[in-house]
Amino acid sequence: MTNTKNIFPGLIAHCKEYGFIFPSSEIYEGLQAVYDYGQMGSELKKNIRDHWWKNMTQLHDNIVGIDAAIFMHPTTWKASGHIDNFNDPMIDNKDSKKRYRVDHLIEGFADEQLAAGHEELAKEVLKCMDALLAKDDFTGLKKLIDDNKIKCAISGTCNWTDIRQFNLMFSTEFGSIAATGETDNKVYLRPETAQGIFVNFLNVQKSGRMKIPFGIAQVGKAFRNEIVARQFIFRMREFEQMEMQFFIRPGTQKEWYEYWKAERLKWHLELGIPGNKYRYHDHVKLAHYADAACDIEYEFPFGFKEVEGIHSRTDFDLTQHQEYSKKKMQYFDNDIDVSTGKPFGNYIPYVIETSIGLDRMFLLVMSHAYEEQDLGTPDKPDSRVVLKLPAKLAPIKLAILPLTKKDGLPEIATKIMDACRADFRCFYEEKDSIGKRYRRMDALGTPFCVTIDHQTKEDDTVTIRYRDTMLQERIPITKIRDIVTKEIS
Ligand code: ATP
Q: How far is the CA of 384 from the centre of ligand 1 (A)?
């Protein structure tokens, strides 16, 4: 009944066939690592976004949301360190001219070894890679690639260049370009949403009279010129992040870091996804701004991979912005410090960040929901593809299906539709056999279908069918709204 084979190719095809995700500008052969969300996908994505937003802002007294612009003053990226440090070590194969991110190339090799049963070698190579990356030891990394005779998947050769750093930010021209070409109009497409929060720290704190500890949340597009874009929407060049920066008193970062680590995993588990599909991965190599960091990893169809990062960012960003902007980024804390009996006074707050990719979360939700089920018997083959999406995230909550197009059944169905559509998304369908309509709703992840038949005219009852169990029962029309609302709230 359940997924035992690699479901990934089927899932990608399903996303396209049912209007979840299309390759960007597909009629022109697409654009690598850029995707469009279709009529079902945009709805599911919005529901995930809303679910995160509500959890982080509405359900926390001390977290507010903002929506900063994608373009920011270029000095932002100098201050944040992105211009100097937002690099990935890359290596080119001289024969195929293909460029690889060094960690991806080595990880790919380790995956192959694992699949071939050489677990020890795979572990050893990854351990070695982590240690070398932590030291930025490019000579050592090159030697690791050479010693293990890691090949390019296209040319099949080991003819590699030296390892070099490449910046991942996209840039463009801002405003009119001076005729002389002398003015520097270069601006960047933001590679993370976090900086929009940092530069607004004082605005929000003052206008919202926020008291530490407090958080600022934001959802928005980010852009990274990923050299190796793989695995469908897992790694894109244009993607969406859901980030929250939590501003705290210096010295309390360890406890808040642990708090947000636990809190964010709880959010994932509350969606009904089992705990054994998740794990933490503590960073060995810390980013230039962090004093502790971990990833929440999920077991995607292609292995455990990062879906969210929790970072203890110290006061790095605010201090940098203070230095570059010459504006004070301080907070006055009038709470009493019991050790001195005086207020804590002025300081630059420390920050814990939670950062999750909306598209990655989408892929996670779809990977978990997607099932190819064999429902047949030896003499009667039958199968279905079902998306067991959490009801609150499903694009359509209720399908309303009159058994026939006549005898007044569509009129009753329309009345039910009108009574429910303001509360949740409904879908009306009268074409095809009822069995075919159920299967289509399973494929879209619709948790409830109600069928209106001739008995409905006599006793005001309908058949409700539950997606996951395929069980059906007779219920009064008046109960439909309550059943659906209870599941999605
Ligand atoms: P990775 O190691 O996978 O490149 P990262 O550690 O650089 O990710 P962060 O900078 O911590 O990622 O970004 C936070 C989150 O944003 C990630 O956990 C991921 O969910 C998402 N994310 C980052 N880069 C991409 C991308 N290219 N496409 C889709 N989502 C991304």
A: 33
